[in-house]
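Supplementary Note 3. Input sequence used for the single-chain structure prediction.
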Amino acid sequence: MSVHLVYETHATTEDNEGGIATGWLPGRLSAAGRLQAEELGRRRRGTGVAAVYASDLACAVETARIAFDDSDIPVRLDARLRECDYGRLNGAPVADVAALRRRCVDEPFPGGQSYRDVVDATRSFLVDLAAAHAGDTVVVVSHSANRWALQHLLDGTPLEDLVDAPFDWRPGWDFTVSAADA
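The predicted structure, written as discrete structure tokens, is reproduced below.
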């Protein structure tokens, strides 16, 4: 039996608006981001969601809490859903991080991790998710690197293609996770 996973990116942060790559820094939602998080809750409540899993980084936690705290849907934090650690580039301009993305698919960012490291963490998360939520719908609130990992693992899209593509926000990406995928 499979899991219906709905990936939602964290809402817009002050760093997003300022062109900063937050990485593993806390980050805070902007005023627009708080409104987006409220809309996420309205969009996903009442759709049979069994649980919400979110990165333990502040912007994802804030998004999930605004969206779901006043509902009966449990919100669980998981460090395996963190954005890529850009190391010394956490908090750097997005352009500086973007210039290294393709190289850092396999080679870690200076003092950080590679996108393959994010794929490995996401794979570990999916194993546990498939075991705990067979037949359920779950929402995952996370970061762009985790969406790329999901698309790579579950759709077979080459990671190199994903890191080069422009960010394309939309209200959720749907994935099916089976024990065989995890």
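The mean pLDDT is 95. The helical segments are 14-18, 31-44, 58-68, 94-98, 115-132, 144-155, 159-164.
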